[in-house]
Amino acid sequence: MEITVHFRHGAPPVINPLGTRFPANATVRPSYNISITLSSAVQNTTFVNVTSPAAGDWFIAAHLPEAAGRIEVKGFSTPCPYMFQADMFVLRLTDMPVLEPGVPMPHTVVSPAKPLHVKVFVPKHAAGMRFQLSSCVTSEQRACAVRVLLGSITLPQSFQKILTCMGSINCSLALESPPWEKWLQIMVESLGTGNASVKVEMLASFTVCRPGSTSSFLNFISLNQSQAVARPGAAGSSAPAAGGAPHNSSSQRGSCLQSQPVVREDLDVVSVRYRLLNGPSVPVNTRSPTLLLLNLNTGMDSGGSLVVNLLLNKTSVSLTNATVVACVSAASPVLSLNATRNCSTAFSQGYPLSVSTSSAEAMLIVLYPQTDDWFLSLQLLCPKGQGECTTAEAKVTVFSYLTPCFNDCGPYGQCSLLRRHGYLYAGCSCKAGWGGWSCTDDTKAQSVGAQNLATLLLTLSNLMFLPAIAVAVYRYYLVEASVYTYTMFFSTFYHACDQPGVAVMCIMDYDTLQYCDFLGSVVSIWVTILCMARVKKILKYVLFILGTLLIAMSLQLDRRGVWNMMGPCLFALVIMITAWVHHGAKRKHCYPSSWKRWVFYLLPGITLAFIAISVYAFMETNENYYYTHSIWHVLVACSVAFLLPPRDKHKKPWAWSQKLTCRYQICQNDREELYAVT
């Protein structure tokens, strides 16, 4: 058996083992996966080595290939369980040097086998970072060759930046939108031969973006707090963090972004709504991007779907060809939006959106968003040659929320919250042939006509019990007829309630209908075989009641166990064979004695019963269930009509004129009264 294992950092992997379609506007990026062949003879061990992994949660998902879809009776087949155990071994770096921003720091790479690891903290509102490597010399006074790796590994796609420096020439690397308020890992390794050490001087400087204020008082407080945390030197639209003086101007023209206050409202498990304090509409201009913070860093938000919906107010845009470009990104926002960029930041890839007067609405669905701070950046872009674009402003209505299942899995699905090893995530369980992540793939979906046909077949096939009921009543087997009526009624309405599509009717609780259907089916077989045994009435009815009580108990313990049906059948067959042997020995000939009884009744009934058991146990699948199970209903009901024994010889057929008296009888007392005369 070959299993597939998926890896992802920050959120569960989005997998599609069945090859179904995802909902429209959903973003799907493949996860890193490997295939492992498991054998029952030996234990298989596979190692996956990840050097410099990103900090945070890592998720692993494993699954088997697609099942055959057979409906197997519990106990007829032997299940084959596969155990998957994931162990993580971590080699940690201790006492890692810290690179202070704006301060050149000399370091030494001991040897090519021992690279140098340092880290630098990226402050909030950092628009860019510049890393510079200078004064590179070896211990042998030769020209050095070093390679610098910035960032960590995130599967499946790694956004590590590589800088190769040859000789003593200064080399540098500029990063746009580095991850805010996180440690950035930097590794320097020597490319030289031998064990010569390398001395280098490293400098990291940041360009900090000063956000502008809005009309909200709460936003004014939050922005002042964020400016107090930021490094000094955030003057003008952007300035190096190492120099300059702090600027407290609240003018929107002097800021590089406009931050809108957003409140997170937790509605339920994996259900969050983001509410804008200044109203659902946000102003968007061409001077600086408008920024919204979507907090998804609680650790329990990555099991749902993040939905972002943008709606442009056409009346607010005076320019016909203007476009509002938006980017949804994690860890850091996209601060320079234009038509050519693809919403990429320093170490991640965002998701682009755009609205215009011709297409005023856009939606984005991020499946299983990673645990982090998410940002929505919006900016107005105008065609070249329109001078009034600098003063133009657009109003965009933003609806953003986190939901367990998008659109609640639609009409043909059910949203389920699943818990694995303490982690909670959501998934859709589709029905009626629908598939996909949100049950939107109708490739194998059943039409409404097919659903109605399936319901009619599974329900109306139970009417084949009517001949069996008529035969039982005609032969004075009233208890058996009552059991068959019970079975027909509950089997009909259980299958009417069990349908996956729109043709559903439940007269009572589903679990109650299922229990009554299973109970009636097994008891019908029980009373039929005991009736064929022709034992004494008192013993037969005692076995009826006792067997029914034991069957009810076993069904409560395990409703789908194979011995719930096989046990009563075998026990009743033992009683029937014993009674038949006793009758044959007593009469000195075979029982039943009539060959017509064997040829025209018993053999056809037994044949129908065996065919019904074969269809039920070995032929049913998810695709053909509605007609194979209907055949099971028909065959079982017909076999009962054939197997019921004839009525007792001393009983006459139903004579309705004798049984039902429709007249009065007047009784007269003709006794004479004697009186004494004195």
Automatic annotation (TrEMBL):
Superkingdom field: Eukaryota
A Pfam family this chain is assigned to: DUF3522
Entry keyword Disulfide bond: yes
Residue ranges, annotated region (Disordered): 234-259
Disulfide bridge map: 405-415, 430-439
Segments of skewed composition (Low complexity): 234-251
UniProt main location, coarse: membrane
InterPro entries, per the entry: EGF (IPR000742), NGX6/PGAP6/MYMK (IPR021910)
Family named by the database record: Belongs to the TMEM8 family.
Name of the featured protein: Post-glycosylphosphatidylinositol attachment to proteins 6
Protein's organism: Malurus cyaneus samueli
